[in-house]
């Protein structure tokens, strides 16, 4: 049995609740399925474990990282903007979920600015026992030379940190950004109250 979710008719909270409560194995070919294969109902899939692509590609940290961010998954109180729930798995190359991995997220606000004095739009969490993570945040704006993007560091227990960036599909500035990499495109789908973005990190 599979459940094909029409995410545009669901709120981000309802979709997230279904992802955890029903178990992702029951959610078919929607954006919330264990491996986000493309279908008529979704955008092209993000690179996924099990495909012959290797680990998630690394990307420069950039100049705006702040050490010792707080443990936080909800950025929605930090700034106004289009709500985005960013979620996915952290996996190894054998497609086994990695529990207790640190997922450290930071990004610009809806005006293209970083908070370099505090920790707005900055925080980390740890994956659960099934390797899942999620953040409630906003869609960042473009700024000089850069298309909208998220910065992420993934650190597995007793492992090496992956530093990378995530991009939104169909952004006009993607191809003008010298750092843009299509292998780091999220699968983004509208919800009734914003957007849901999916990316599964595969660690070497």
UniProtKB/TrEMBL annotation:
Domain Intradiol ring-cleavage dioxygenases: residue ranges: 61-182
Keyword Oxidoreductase recorded: yes
Superkingdom of the organism of origin: Bacteria
GO molecular function terms attached to this record: ferric iron binding; oxidoreductase activity, acting on single donors with incorporation of molecular oxygen, incorporation of two atoms of oxygen
Region listing for Disordered, in residue ranges: 48-78
Keyword Oxidoreductase: yes
Keywords: Dioxygenase, Oxidoreductase
Family in the record: Belongs to the intradiol ring-cleavage dioxygenase family.
Name of this protein: Intradiol ring-cleavage dioxygenase
Organism of derivation: Thalassospira tepidiphila MCCC 1A03514
């Amino acid at each position: 049995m599979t459940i094909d979710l029409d995410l545009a008719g669901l709120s981000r909270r309802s979709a997230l609740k279904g992802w955890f409560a029903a178990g992702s194995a029951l959610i078919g070919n929607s954006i919330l399925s264990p491996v986000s294969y493309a279908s008529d109902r979704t955008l092209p899939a993000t690179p996924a474990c099990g495909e012959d692509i290797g680990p998630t590609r690394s990307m420069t940290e950039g100049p705006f990282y702040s050490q010792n961010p707080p443990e936080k998954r909800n950025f929605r109180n930090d700034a106004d903007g289009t709500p985005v729930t960013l979620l996915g798995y952290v996996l190894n190359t054998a497609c086994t979920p990695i529990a207790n991995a640190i997922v450290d997220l930071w990004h610009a606000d809806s005006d293209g600015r970083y908070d370099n004095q505090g920790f707005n739009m900055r925080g980390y969490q740890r994956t659960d026992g099934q390797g899942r993570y999620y953040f409630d945040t906003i869609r960042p704006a473009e700024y000089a030379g850069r298309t909208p993007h998220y910065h992420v560091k993934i650190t597995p227990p007793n492992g090496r940190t992956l530093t990378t960036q995530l991009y939104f599909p169909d952004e006009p500035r993607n191809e003008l950004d010298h750092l843009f990499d299509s292998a780091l495109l999220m699968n983004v789908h509208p919800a009734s109250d914003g957007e849901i973005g999916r990316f599964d990190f595969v660690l070497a």
